[in-house]
Design goal:
alpha/beta, Aspartate Aminotransferase, domain 1, 5-stranded mixed sheet, 4-stranded mixed sheet, 15 helices, 13 strands, binds pyridoxal-5'-phosphate
Length: 409
């Protein structure tokens, strides 16, 4: 073995990218007409083309070559970007005194440095059973053991299971790292309401007397939820955290600004103990230095410009896609309900996920869909339909087609 002895050499299986590969092979042979691509978690318009917000990219192309070429002001990012990161993503709900910020390469960078700043190799991390598969990949790369929690109980967020897992972790290792992906969970499309948030934070505040807790909330999809006036309400709860409890809000401009390739994101660490906040940020900064050195200077400059000079244009343009997601999700869910196709409880976001009792049943339906040139992604006990990328005209009737395939099994 050439690589380090602890390397995990099992294949890197990414269900999304492997289904995309199937789709691409199909259209290369048979053409695009008649094939449905419901795989990729990127916003596409009604022609099926990738959305790239003009309010963000028009100005980007006007930056100077030197702005593209220059390093950032520091490993943690440019100070004006960090200010805007906090103010945009907390919308004034969290006291700035309780926040520290760091710029990262995408949401993936944010999640990854948050994890590895809090847990040592061999420790346990708590992850939703139905979730973005990169959480698992990152955790295994860092040598963590995973304790999965069940997402739902009676179609509501399963806070009992979450708190039990946190308590067990505190007893076992004196600390707990809990991941949630709220609002607009990938892949279920669930968003917690304020009562659920209050119960969760109250529970974590109580458990924090047993040890340190990091609540990593991946807010990648927060800017595309239906109720933009109340999306941040739960953050008021972060002003009153137990000293041993911290929140790491992990942000992705891939989603917020439809800027997947121009990598940028960030972490807003929130807590009541300034020495703990300083420790976290210093540890994260060293991780940034180690992994990518500097975040993307021109992308930070562009985000700052948009926030200062074109915030209304951004809000307005983004709203069109929030409305489009609403139209598509409503249509698909109504049609699923009409034909009796079961799905996880959806409230917001880019995906609706069909629900199965077991993965064999899911695999059979997946294969049948592929034969009909319907490409959607496998997740645990589910098939994820990326309504973000399927034009409404193609979504219309999809539930019925899938239900017929299911019945014929
Ligand atoms: C749940 C979730 N979190 C975070 C991300 C981060 O994406 P990126 O690293 O491109 O910012 C994604 C991307 O698909 C995601 O689905």
């Amino acid at each position: 073995m050439f690589v380090k002895s602890s390397a995990d050499l099992s294949p890197l299986i990414d269900n999304v990218f492997s289904t995309v590969a199937l789709y691409k092979a199909d259209i290369a042979q048979n053409g695009k007409a008649g094939a449905l691509n419901g795989t990729i978690g990127s916003l596409c318009d009604e022609n099926g083309d990738l959305v790239a917000l003009d309010s963000y990219f028009d100005h980007y192309s006007q930056l100077s070559h030197r702005q593209y070429a220059a390093y950032a002001a520091g490993f943690a990012g440019n100070p004006d970007y960090l200010d805007h990161l906090r103010s945009w993503f907390t919308q004034g709900k969290v006291d700035p005194e309780h926040c520290r910020m760091i710029a990262t390469m995408g949401g993936s960078g944010a999640i990854s440095i948050s994890m590895q700043s809090f847990l040592d190799r061999g420790q346990t991390i708590i992850i939703p059973r139905l979730s973005w598969e990169s959480y698992e990949t990152m955790s295994l790369t860092y040598g963590y053991t995973i304790d999965w929690y069940e997402n739902f109980k009676d179609d509501h967020f399963n806070i009992d299971d979450v708190l039990q897992k946190v308590e067990a972790s505190l007893h076992q290792q004196g600390r707990a790292l809990l991941i949630i992906n709220d609002p607009a969970h990938n892949p279920s499309g669930y968003s917690m309401d304020i009562q659920e948030w209050t119960t969760l934070i109250n529970g974590l505040n109580q458990l924090a007397s047993l040890g340190n807790i990091l609540l990593l909330n991946d807010v990648a999809y927060i800017d595309y939820c239906t109720d933009q006036n109340h999306n941040h309400d739960q953050m008021c709860l972060f002003n009153d955290l137990h000293p041993n409890l911290m929140v790491a809000l992990c942000v992705s401009l891939s989603k917020t600004a439809t800027s997947y390739g121009l990598r940028l994101g960030g972490v807003i660490v929130i807590g009541n103990q300034s020495d703990y906040l300083d420790e976290m940020v210093l540890t994260m900064k060293k991780a940034c230095r180690t992994y990518w050195s500097n975040p993307n200077n021109s992308a930070m400059i562009n985000f700052v410009w948009m926030m200062d000079h074109n915030q209304n244009g951004f809000i307005h343009e983004k709203q069109q896609y929030i409305d489009l997601l609403k139209t598509r999700s409503q249509l698909f869910i109504d049609q699923c309900d009409a034909v009796g196709l079961d799905h996880y409880p959806y409230r917001d976001g880019f995906f609706v996920t069909l629900r199965f009792n077991d993965n064999d049943q899911r695999d059979r339906l997946f294969d049948a869909c592929v034969k009909q040139r319907i490409y959607i992604c496998k997740v645990d006990k589910g098939l994820r339909v990326a309504i973000c990328s399927i034009p409404t005209s193609q979504l219309d009737g999809l539930a019925k087609r899938i239900m017929e395939l299911k019945k014929s099994q």
